[in-house]
């Protein structure tokens, strides 16, 4: 059974159809990339999957549950995490506190437990703190725990935003341009991190523009253009697809 | 563990000194200043209430005078008209305040930014009008008289803790202020507090991390209003007469000024801000009608030049010193 199943998904904003009758699925353990020219509807698709937008029509089924119309926090609780295209972190908080907040959805402490500092609350906070350190060392931010997030380099901020998404223990991770705005030399490190996350068994759906990266790490690729799926398949199949070449390079290059 | 910070840290010593001062000063400064300090302590509780919802959750409420008013009138009506005992009336009054905040918060907190602020302001105006117009219930502009002082608390060895003197009333109010500070300190440093702060930084990101931001905002709003309700009960019991003026929305804006001048989102800010803005006009013998004007000007100056308030500015000093030292080392 597919982990994520999207059927007939559409979203229009007034007269503009950003995503149109889109259907595809993601298998457990797979790395699926979504590519397409600017404005193809990739980020809109992520916003639909995570509940930030309500689909105009169509259904989203994740792990056997119908997620269509769920709120963002409910989607995250069901096991889908995401990063944002514009690196989203809590800039004023420390690196460690960022990842602590990332785990807060699982916390059971209530107001009185927190104010009276019951042993259960202290134990829980201790566990979360340790888990946060583990996650930070996994993404390569060990030793930077006490830095204020805004002082990190762009690349380290990307890593932090990924660790926020990892903190709540997702089954499916949606990465929106994880290497966007990062120096060329630093990209390979981030690609390695994506591979490392994959090895832990987390399914990944990736939006990327860097073709070399997409072709080398994806199992399958879905190509969007003007909100429609124009191709789907292995990197090799997609690279040879006439529709894809037309969308990216123009009709002149179609053989 | 962060919870077991050593007691000799500079911050802990500063807090201890402030507490000792708060306990030791009133007996020596005389009645006038003590009565002033009682009011300052009550409004400091209000500033902490504002700090929870605005400083730590990022939702600016201009309607907090209404919650103080609801607490005060609920307590006054229960004791004066229904003849409920002091402590049951106290508990009921703050529960009623919390419940009303919960019900108002459900629709209001769905709105963001200026829309939320406007709804809270509208709520405060409505409560103010009801208090003035429902004369049969509240006494209207004449206020509600005959509110009781705290009942004596029997002590195990036969004596009684009585609250009929000004000084004992001060300690009664101070006790609730200390409870409020302790409650807020523990709460904002807990995971719940961190989550509230996360909402104030970036609500969209917080929600995408699986946190039901609406329910957390509602929790913060309800707790904040409950603290305002406590301030209302203390005000009513201290003053014996409830004047409808306390529910006026402008008093809620004064609290916003106290908090911003002191430093929103800090633990010392509410104390410093309320103390400075309430004590300075008193010391300078400024006419009451000028106070609001001066508060407004001071608030504007702070928003322009020290948006993080006195404490926020104070907290940047170590970093600045460090930077200048680095600069000196660098040039040497």
Could you explain how this protein is built, in words?
The complex is a heterodimer of chains A (255) and B (332). With 255 residues, chain A is α/β, with parallel strands linked by helices. Chain A has one domain: P-loop containing nucleotide triphosphate hydrolases (Rossmann fold, 3-Layer(aba) Sandwich). Chain A contains 10 helices and 10 strands. In chain A, strands 6-7-8-3-9-10 form a 6-stranded mixed beta sheet, sandwiched between helices. In chain A, helix 5 packs across helix 6 (154-167). Chain A starts with a strand and ends in a 6-residue tail after the last helix. By secondary structure, chain B is mainly alpha-helical. Chain B has a domain at 30-152 and 160-249. In chain B, 74% of the residues lie in helices and 1% in strands. Chain B has 15 helices and 2 strands. Chain B has helices at residues 10-24, 26-29, 31-55, 64-80, 86-108, 114-133, 135-138, 166-189, 191-201, 203-208, 213-239, 249-262, 269-283, 288-305, 309-331; strands at residues 153-154, 160-161. Chain B has a two-stranded antiparallel sheet. In chain B, a hairpin with a 5-residue loop joins strand 1 and strand 2 (160-161). The two termini of chain B are 39 Å apart. The relative contact order of chain B is 0.16.
Task: Describe, in short, the structure shown.
Chain A has 255 residues and is an alpha/beta fold.
Q: Which descriptors would you attach to this protein?
A:
A: 255 residues, alpha/beta, Rossmann fold, 4-stranded antiparallel β-sheet, 10 helices, B: 332 residues, mainly alpha
What is the fold's blueprint, element by element?
The complex is a heterodimer of chains A (255) and B (332).
Chain A: E1 4-13, E2 16-26, E3 31-35, H1 42-49, E4 57-62, E5 65-66, H2 72-78, E6 80-82, H3 95-102, H4 111-116, H5 119-138, H6 154-167, E7 172-176, H7 184-199, E8 203-207, H8 211-217, E9 220-225, E10 228-233, H9 235-239, H10 242-249
Helix pairs in contact in A: 3-5, 3-6, 5-6
Chain B: H1 10-24, H2 26-29, H3 31-55, H4 64-80, H5 86-108, H6 114-133, H7 135-138, E1 153-154, E2 160-161, H8 166-189, H9 191-201, H10 203-208, H11 213-239, H12 249-262, H13 269-283, H14 288-305, H15 309-331
Antiparallel strand pairs in B: 1-2
Helix pairs in contact in B: 3-8, 3-11, 3-12, 3-13, 4-5, 4-6, 4-11, 5-11, 8-9, 8-11, 9-11, 12-13, 12-14, 12-15
């Amino acid at each position: 059974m597919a982990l994520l199943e999207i059927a007939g998904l559409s979203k229009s904003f007034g007269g503009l159809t950003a995503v149109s009758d889109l259907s595809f699925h993601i298998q457990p353990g797979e790395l699926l990339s979504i590519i397409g020219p600017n404005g193809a509807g990739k980020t809109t698709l992520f916003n639909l999957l995570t509940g930030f937008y309500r689909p105009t029509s169509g259904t989203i089924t994740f792990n056997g549950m119908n997620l269509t119309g769920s709120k963002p926090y409910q989607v995250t609780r069901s096991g889908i995490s995401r990063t944002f295209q514009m690196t989203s972190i809590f800039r004023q908080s420390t690196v460690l506190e960022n990842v602590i907040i990332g785990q807060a959805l699982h916390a059971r402490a209530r107001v009185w437990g927190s104010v009276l500092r019951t042993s259960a609350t202290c134990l829980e906070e201790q566990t979360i703190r340790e888990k946060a350190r583990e996650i930070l060392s996994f993404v390569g931010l060990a030793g930077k725990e006490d830095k204020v997030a805004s002082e990190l380099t762009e690349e380290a901020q990307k890593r932090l935003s990924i660790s926020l998404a990892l903190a709540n223990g997702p089954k499916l991770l949606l990465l929106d341009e994880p290497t966007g705005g990062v120096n060329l030399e630093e990209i390979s490190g981030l690609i390695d991190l994506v591979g490392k996350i994959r090895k832990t068994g987390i399914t990944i759906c990736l939006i990327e523009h860097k073709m070399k990266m997409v072709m080398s790490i994806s199992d399958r690729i879905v190509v969007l253009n003007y909100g429609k799926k124009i191709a789907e398949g292995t990197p090799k199949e997609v690279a040879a697809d006439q529709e894809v070449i037309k969308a990216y390079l123009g009709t002149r290059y179609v053989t | 563990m962060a919870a077991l910070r050593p007691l000799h840290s500079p911050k802990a010593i500063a807090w201890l000194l402030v507490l000792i001062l708060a306990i030791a000063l009133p007996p020596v400064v005389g009645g006038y200043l003590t009565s002033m300090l009682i009011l300052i302590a009550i409004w400091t509780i209000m500033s902490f209430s504002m700090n929870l919802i605005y400083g730590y959750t990022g939702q600016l409420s201009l309607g907090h005078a209404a919650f103080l008013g609801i607490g005060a009138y609920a307590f006054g009506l229960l004791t004066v008209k229904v003849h409920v005992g002091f402590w049951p009336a106290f508990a009921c009054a703050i529960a009623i305040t919390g419940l009303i905040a919960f019900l108002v918060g459900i629709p209001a907190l769905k709105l963001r930014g200026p829309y939320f602020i406007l709804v809270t302001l509208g709520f405060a105006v409505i409560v103010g009008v009801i208090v003035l117009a429902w004369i049969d219930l509240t006494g209207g502009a004449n206020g509600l008289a005959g509110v009781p002082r705290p009942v004596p608390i029997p002590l195990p060895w036969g004596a009684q803790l009585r609250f009929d003197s000004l000084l004992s009333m001060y300690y009664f109010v101070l006790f609730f202020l200390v409870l409020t500070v302790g409650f807020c300190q523990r709460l904002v440093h807990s995971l719940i507090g961190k989550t509230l702060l996360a909402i104030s930084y970036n609500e969209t990101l917080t929600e995408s991390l699986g946190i039901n931001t609406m329910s957390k905002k509602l929790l913060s709003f309800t707790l904040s209003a409950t603290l305002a309700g406590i301030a209302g009960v203390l005000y009513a019991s201290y003053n014996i007469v409830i004047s409808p003026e306390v529910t006026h929305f402008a008093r809620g804006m004064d609290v916003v000024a106290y908090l911003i001048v002191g430093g929103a989102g800090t633990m010392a800010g509410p104390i410093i801000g309320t103390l400075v803005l309430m004590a300075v006009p008193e010391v300078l013998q400024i006419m009451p009608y000028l106070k609001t004007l001066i508060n407004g000007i001071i608030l504007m100056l702070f928003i322009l030049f020290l948006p993080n308030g006195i404490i926020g500015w104070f907290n940047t000093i170590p970093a600045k010193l460090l930077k200048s030292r680095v600069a000196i080392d660098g040039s040497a």
